[in-house]
Amino acid sequence: MINRFFLKNNTISGVTEEELKKPLDYKEVIYAFERTTYASIYTIDYEKKSFEYVSENPLFLCGHSVDEVREMGYAFYFKNVVPEDLELLIKINKIGFDFYDKIPLSDKKLYTISYDFHLKTDDNKRILVNQKLTPLFLTDDGAIWKALCIVSLSTAKTSGNIKISKKGYNQELHFDLNDERWRSIDGIKLSEREKEILRLSIRGFTINDIGNEIFVSPETVKFHRKKLFTKLGVSSMPEAIFYAANNKLI
C-alpha cells in the first residue's frame, strides 16, 4: 500500500556513503519553509553579529530590500523599531540570554522566546509585530550560535508580552517587567467544541452553518464563541483564528 505513494519519479536509489555524509544546508530548509508560510523569517548569526538570511516577506522589511536589511543587520532595529520599543528589545535580549545561560545544554534547543514590539513602516506608520526566536545551532559549550526568528502580526494590544515556552510542555514562563521576574503560567487549553467551532469558522461557516453542522442551536454556538474569545483575550473570530493558529492551539 505504501508503495502507491512512491513512483518512478520520486524514488531514489543508489545513494553513496559519501552523499549520505554530506551535511544538509539548513538554508535550503528555510527557503522551503518561506514558501509555505505568511510570516517573515530571518536568521541571526551571533558569531558574526549579523543577519544571515532574510525572507522576501514585506512585513519585516519596512520598505527595504532583502539585501538592504541583511546589510544593515542589527542597525535595522535602530532604524525601524520605535524608540520606546528599542529599549524594550535591548532589555529582552539581556533577560532572554540570561535565561538561556541557566538551561541545561541538552534542553537549550527546546525553548522559544516570544515578544511583541512596534515597527515603523516605510510610510512611517506603526505596526505591532510578534517575534519568536529559537536556537538553530549551538557552540560546543552551549552558547547560541545561530537562531531562527519568525515575525508575524501581533494579536496583542501593546508591546512586551515576553514569554518563553518549552516544546512538549503546556506551560509558559511570562516575564513581569514590573517585578523583573519570570512567572509560570499554564498554557491555554481549548475544548473539543471550541476547536470544532474554530475549524468550521476557518472554512467560512456562519454561526447558523456551524449550528447545523454540529447539531446545536445558534445560541449554543454563540455561547461557545463567547467563552473562546474570553479564553484567548480577543473580540472577534478572525482574531481568535489568528491567535489559535499562531499559538498552535489548533
Overall geometric form: globular
Biggest sheet: strand arrangement: 2-1-5-4-3-6-7-8
Taking the alpha carbons of the first and last residues, their distance comes to 30 Å
Would you identify the regions where 5 or more consecutive residues have pLDDT less than 50? Answer: none
Largest sheet entry = 8 strands, antiparallel
Question: Strand share of the residues?
Answer: 25-35%
- Mean pLDDT, as a whole number? 86
The count of DSSP E runs of length 2 or more, i.e. the number of strands, is 8
Using only CA atoms, what is the Rg?
21 Å
Q: Count the DSSP helices.
A: 10
Helicity range: 25-40%
Q: Which structural class fits the helix and strand makeup?
A: alpha+beta
Oligomer, anyone? single chain
Order of helices and strands: HHEEHHHHEEEEEEHHHH
How would you characterize the overall build of this protein?
It is a single chain. The protein has 250 residues and is α+β, with helices and mostly antiparallel strands. Helix content is 38%, strand content 25%. The chain contains ten helices and eight strands. The protein has helices at residues 17-21, 26-35, 58-61, 66-72, 75-80, 83-101, 192-202, 207-214, 218-232, 237-246; strands at residues 40-45, 50-54, 111-120, 126-138, 144-153, 160-166, 171-176, 181-186. It has an eight-stranded antiparallel beta sheet, with helices on both faces. A hairpin with a 4-residue loop joins strand 6 and strand 7. Helix 7 (192-202) packs across helix 10 and helix 9 crosses helix 10 (237-246). It is globular, with a radius of gyration of 21 Å. The relative contact order is 0.09. The model has no long low-confidence stretch (mean pLDDT 86).
